[in-house]
Amino acid sequence: MRCWRRLAAAGALLASLCAALALAVAEHRRPDTTASSSSRRPLRFASGGGFKVALFADLHYGENAWTDWGPRQDAGSDRVMAAVLDAEKPDFVVYLGDLVTANNLGIPNASLYWDRAISPTRGRGIPWATVFGNHDDMPFEWPPEWFSPAGVPPLHCPPPSMSDSDCSFRGTPRLELMTSEVIRNGLSYSSNGPKDLWPAVSNYVLQVLSQKRDDPALLMYFLDSGGGSYPEVISSAQVQWFHSQSQFLNPNGRISEIIFWHIPSTAYAKVAPKAKSEIRKPCVGSINKEEVAPQEAEWGMMDALVKRASVKAIFVGHNHGLDWCCPHEKLWLCFARHTGYGGYGNWPRGARVIEISEQPFSIQSWIRMEDGTTHSDISLSS
């Protein structure tokens, strides 16, 4: 480990942020139809016919990283994930965006914190996939208290052997974060996605094979909903990509499909219970403490999804004070539970769990809390 820089200012707490030497740069992975690799085993339903997925949303590692408070929140997030993983023992984990609070990270290699976010899953040998949220590659925001009386914050550059660029607070772009994750982790099923969709990066499909055959019995689509370095949208180009992939992989809709992205679509705002009101059926959940904060615009993704009877549910994060599922047309719109101790809100932390059964096909979901309790059981099959 080498120290990249020490961040200090008059009257502010001295802190050191240490980083691994230089992010390894590799050629971007070829954008395939699915995020598969010959070195990664196919995902498959278990012998009992089940496939369990835990969703970790809004971890926000690295928030206020220059203080004592920030690292304590990261330790809390470690505890939540460990508790959920040990209680549920999922087959797969989805990191549903905002793994880091990049606007609080004054180092060029935010993959240090990204790596910590995935470490509880990796350490237990569980495969995972990630999508980007609006905070994952936000530009660094100088805290006002860092500025000295002269109006210029002191900057301590790395040793002379480092490049001058290491003295800038440039943040870490999506491509670098994802490339670092994929090339260093054999259990990662994430992908940079097709180049023609960039700057939207985390766009890919994963197939879950039948327990008895080498045919897919479930398709999981991952989409980058923007934010940070570009607007909070799912573009029309991503919609066309979804059309082409779904028609190629599932032309007759025989295979059930579930969808993951970070920022809720405008459809979530339409079906949402009134903010701070009791959640009533057909919606199911435990917290409804704020209004939905949707994407900036709807460019056709919801229209594409509701027309496919094979699409069963969409799962998002972003709103920390919401954890409900509500029906929309013939599919379900679900929030995960705020998992991380970083980010706004003091509601108890937890994670949404999804259990899919192959025969007969069904999707059950519930929320597992840090304290071990569960609640908000719901069937998403109808």
UniProtKB/TrEMBL annotation:
One of its GO terms (cellular component) is cytoplasm. GO terms for molecular function: hydrolase activity, acting on ester bonds. InterPro entries: Calcineurin-like_PHP (IPR004843), Metallo-depent_PP-like (IPR029052), PAP14/16/28/29 (IPR011230). Residues 1-22 form the signal peptide. This is Calcineurin-like phosphoesterase domain-containing protein. Residues 51-320 form the Calcineurin-like phosphoesterase domain. Keywords: Signal. CDD domains: MPP_Dcr2. Coiled coil: none annotated.
